[in-house]
Amino acid sequence: MAPSPEVALRPFAPDDIPLLRSWEKDDEVRKWLGTAGITAYSSDRTRRVLAIECGGAAIGYIILDHINWKAGSVEIRVCIGEADYRDRGLGRIAITLALGMLRKRRSLKEVYLRVDPANKRAVRCYERCGFRKEGILRRSSTVVNDLLLMSYRLTLLEVT
Q: Which of 100, 82, 109 is CA-nearest to residue 26?
């Protein structure tokens, strides 16, 4: 069995912007995420933007958005921007790292996400990470697809 690639999360840096701009031009990134998640890179109390690194190079990002400390919830968005790194399980590793980081924040209880149900690869990845399907968010526009709502409970005791 091949060794797992070394994946790490680090704070997003302004030096990452040119790389992220190049990902905006990727057809698959635009298809599933649009460009809003990429261009809105700043962090504040309700948002954290993390770069996903593999072998020391940024290959994607995770956005922890709508952090609600009082309600204990946070939305997660994930993108592997570098096409050569897709379909290698690196997104799953990065999500697992992010969930471990969030689990340490005792005030957070739930992570949720919205994903296009047609994005089968992403849905399968989230399920493998422990996310559960909660329902469909119906969109009134015919231009924008309905979204699948999925959640992950941080407060569940894990049995090993």
A: 82
Q: Which residues pair with 53 in a beta bridge?
A: 8, 58
Q: DSSP letters along 17-40, please?
A: HHHHHHHHT-HHHHHHHTTHHHH-
Q: How far apart are the C-alpha atoms of 58 and 80, rounded to whole Å?
A: 9
Question: Domains, the chain, ranges and CATH?
Answer: 7-153 (3.40.630.30)
- Each residue's pLDDT expressed in tens, for the chain with a length of 160 residues: 344 579 999 998 888 888 888 888 888 887 777 655 555 566 678 899 999 999 989 999 999 999 999 999 999 999 999 999 999 999 999 999 999 999 998 889 999 999 999 999 999 999 999 999 999 988 776 656 789 999 999 975 555 4
Compute the distance between CA of residue 60 and CA of residue 53 in angstroms, rounded to an integer: 7
Q: Quick one: which of 78, 144, 87 has its CA closest to 112?
A: 78
Long-range (24+ apart) CB contacts under 8 A made by 83-87 are: 83/26, 83/28, 85/54, 85/59, 85/60, 86/28, 87/121
